[in-house]
Design goal:
By secondary structure, this protein is mainly beta. It is 6% helix and 52% strand.
């Protein structure tokens, strides 16, 4: 049913001229992912109350890229992630499948407009999953969600010096008209980057704005962020680095005076990675440190930390990273230190151990405490082939003083066991 829906999506998407060759040079791709986990004390951190849950989630994506003309190309990608093993509804009927298959890519790309600009129009993924400000794409969360955005995108070379990329579009459109009815969320921005200034590295400067228009006659909230990014390798040592700094601008006009309504938060993320052979075994290590002020606002952050803190955010509002205005992705109101090591004792087997220390930048819960907790993740991965991988994981979140239960209620760690399978085709 999913493959027939994919073909139907192609047919609906493509309006071809009379003499065009339909789906010329068609190339298909996709993935099947299964994420199974059992997690305890996730929402109450209480060993007495029973809030254990176990789920197996699936995400299927199927895409196709093709040429409409020699200089016009199209792409369609369908996704489905609603299926939970053992659902009380049993097998899905065709109507349910039809309603839950989403068109997350539907765009055309025109080569060399004005002999210089590649123009992409339509619904598409954008950004990097490790970005602290903007990312739309497959999400690494507990429900395997997928996000996308409707934009015009322009890519152009700046001579031999660097590259430019700009976007303008909408995150959401209420389809309403008139000054008192518009409640859209508009998005625009861009970046320039170069590999000419840093040896074996790249430097980028970005600026994005999301304008959240007030429903009816209420005021707008304009969130802007300027991002400076540097990344690269340190010679041939096996050491690499990245550094990101984001500064907010804009104003939330929904906040009445005299309260400060300016967006002036900021965030920083610094990281080192090392990869070499240790006794002929691939060895890796990493360090990350990040901090975001309590008023830092991102457009749609992608960066996530930890199996429990980062992934478990979509099913409820009571997970640790959803408290104190943080959220599982990004750095708002958060300080995090992340260290990890890994080795492949045999070619296909990877063993990784990661530790995360979480602290609120500004406590808003009662008591004024800032320590959110410490998480430890053990990950065993098996690379069956280039396109098939399996993973088993165990994670424990040691609850910090800011999230300790009160009033005589005991506090216990959050624990999680998980298994993932990913097939690319």
């Amino acid at each position: 049913m999913f493959s027939s829906g994919f073909v139907l999506g192609l047919v609906v998407f493509v309006t071809f001229p009379a003499r065009a060759e339909l789906l010329k040079n068609l190339k298909t791709d996709g993935s099947i992912e299964v994420r199974a986990f059992g997690i305890d004390n996730e929402t109450d951190r209480n060993p007495i109350a029973d809030d254990y849950r176990g789920e197996s989630r699936t995400r299927v994506m199927a895409g196709g890229s093709f040429d409409l003309l020699d200089d016009v190309h199209g792409r369609v990608l369908l996704s489905k992630n609603n299926r939970v093993y053992g659902s009380v509804t049993g097998s899905e009927d065709t109507n349910t499948v039809q309603d839950t298959v989403l068109l997350d890519n539907a765009f055309v790309k025109i080569d060399k407009v004005f002999d210089r600009v590649d123009l992409t129009l339509g619904r598409q993924f954008y950004g990097d999953p490790n970005d602290i400000v903007i990312y739309f794409g497959p999400q690494n969360d507990d429900v395997l969600s997928v996000t996308a955005v409707d934009v015009f995108r322009a890519d152009a070379a700046l001579g031999d010096w660097g590259k430019f990329q700009g976007i303008a579009g909408k995150i959401s459109d209420a389809a309403a008209v008139g000054a008192a009815a518009n409640s859209d969320v508009d998005l625009y921005g861009g970046m320039i980057g170069t590999d000419k200034l840093i040896p074996k590295g790249r430097l980028g400067l970005s600026y994005y704005t999301a304008k959240i228009k007030g429903v009816g006659a209420t005021a707008n909230d304009t969130i802007s962020a300027a991002i400076l990014c540097a990344l690269g390798d340190v010679g041939d040592t096996g050491l690499s680095y990245h550094a990101d700094y984001a500064q907010n601008f804009g104003e939330d006009e929904t906040i009445p005076p005299p309260t400060d309504s300016d967006h002036d938060g900021n965030a920083i993320l610094l990281g080192l990675k090392y990869g070499q052979s240790l006794m002929d075994k691939p060895f890796r290590a990493m360090l990350d440190w990040g901090r975001g002020t309590n008023n830092f606002a991102a457009v749609a952050p992608g960066k996530r930390f930890g199996k429990i803190w980062g992934e478990h955010t979509a099913s409820s509002g009571l997970q640790p990273s959803n408290l104190n205005s943080v959220g599982g992705a990004g750095l708002t109101n958060l300080q995090v230190f992340d260290a990890g090591v890994g080795i492949n004792p045999i070619q296909k087997l990877g063993i990784d151990l990661n530790a995360y220390r979480f602290q609120y930048d500004d406590a808003t819960l009662a008591g004024g405490l800032t320590s959110a907790g410490t998480e430890y993740d053990l990950i065993l991965s098996w690379k069956h082939s280039d396109n098939v991988s399996l993973e088993a994981s165990a994670a424990s979140f040691q609850v910090g003083d800011a999230l300790q239960n009160t009033g005589g209620t005991p506090t216990a760690p959050i624990t999680r066991l998980g298994a993932d399978v990913k097939i690319k085709f």
